Amino acid sequence: MKRYHLFSIILVFLGLNAQEPYRPYPIIWCHGLWSSPGTWGVGEWEVEGDPHNPDNVEIKELREGPGSTIWEIKQTYFDALAPNYYPNYSPTNLHHIYQEVVLFDPSDASIDYRDENDIGRGWKLVKKAREVLREYYGENWENNPDAKVIFIGHSMGAPSIRYALEYDPVLADHTYKVITIGGVHQGSVWATPGINALYLGATLYYPMILLFREIFQKVIESEAVNLI
């Protein structure tokens, strides 16, 4: 009887100390202003539905080599762990590789809703994220506490993520982590019509003066040589 109790205690102890199984979360890469999924090394992608308000975006081809973010992570991380950690993963198939991209077309569109022709970057991201959750976790993903995604945003992709999570609390609850790279969380003059033109002009003003001065000086020197 004592042995039985001891064995039961050991089983309970092992159960309490067992590590929680690894939960893979798909990554959604969000590009910035005047950019595209090519930012992350996508060579070719396919849009489902309206190109400006896509229902989904599928990676068809990756650029291989250093600097191709998705390819590098796929090679060094995902390929090494699959298939033990990543169900339905195939190194040779770019569908369901736990790395997904969103397409903001036009890339300089408003973050929030504008009209039926441009639902805004935020809502485009909501559509994409919900499609990813449905693909990886099934139609009942909203009731699955383990169904989560990771967002990685560059530049204008960062406030686009913030907008999406603010206006879709269900999606926010199914977000594991948000990572931003050079995110313009306080805005950017490059995104303000009119001001961006003035900023660009001011930025180019002094280099252009230096360039024309250099050209003018060479013309003067050339004329002086001809006179001699």
Please describe what this structure looks like.
The protein is an alpha/beta fold and 228 residues long. The protein has 2 domains: 167 residues, Rossmann fold (3-Layer(aba) Sandwich); 37 residues. Helices cover 42% and strands 15% of the residues. The chain contains 6 helices and 6 strands; from the N terminus they run αβββαβαβααβα. The strands form 2 sheets. The protein has a 4-stranded parallel β-sheet. A two-stranded antiparallel ribbon has the order 2-3. The chain is globular. The relative contact order is 0.12. The N terminus is likely disordered.
Short description:
With 228 residues, the protein is of the alpha/beta class. The chain is 42% helix and 15% strand. The N terminus is likely disordered.
